[in-house]
């Protein structure tokens, strides 16, 4: 029995077509495949980048939702009708920074959330700072393609900044020794540590991206050795 061989040129075209196929799941849970030309210009690493980006952003939105639930006064200070409206505002952070934060980005904006005299929406300030850090790490792009370049150091710094933000949430108090923002709940019913879990998941994704990019480009990141108690937000967007 003779084996039919695929001509080399046809094999290249076939591979390209397969690479341009994306798997999806419909409303009934059934999986299928559709052709999307943009996947012809994406490597496996690019797809990992896109997936991690989407999951990190959704993780930050969950943190925002949790913070607004425990601190409703914050979205009320910003003049929103409800918590959902405040979260929707954060989703367009690139073009519409929260009031009072124009010109402030990343750590500079996040620190406003813990400043004693800050009268604005502290949750909005913190999340705006964290979101702009993530945006800078992904080079202000919604999708990654073959020719795009990302910096492992930015992802490493961003991961450490998430740890700093979590520490500040747990340790920052006002003049009356009350938490600046309420986070985990400890009661007779038990301990709710959902903030640590969500931040931990985001840190893990950012560290994974840093490792993937280190391996891809063969460049090691500079790892900071610092105590959380004396830590500060590391630069992300300012790195070159």
Protein described:
- The radius of gyration is 22 Å and the shape is globular.
- Helix 2 (44-70) packs antiparallel against helix 8, helix 5 (106-112) packs antiparallel against helix 6 (122-137) and helix 6 (122-137) runs antiparallel to helix 7.
- The chain has two domains: 1-41, no CATH class; 43-230.
- The chain has helices spanning 8-19, 44-70, 72-77, 83-90, 106-112, 122-137, 152-171, 194-217; strands at residues 21-25, 31-35, 185-187, 190-192.
- The protein is mainly α and 240 residues long.
- The strands form two sheets. Strands 1-2 form a two-stranded antiparallel sheet. Strands 3-4 form a two-stranded antiparallel ribbon.
- The protein is built from eight helices and four strands; from the N terminus they run αββααααααββα.
- The model is unreliable at 3-20 (pLDDT under 50).
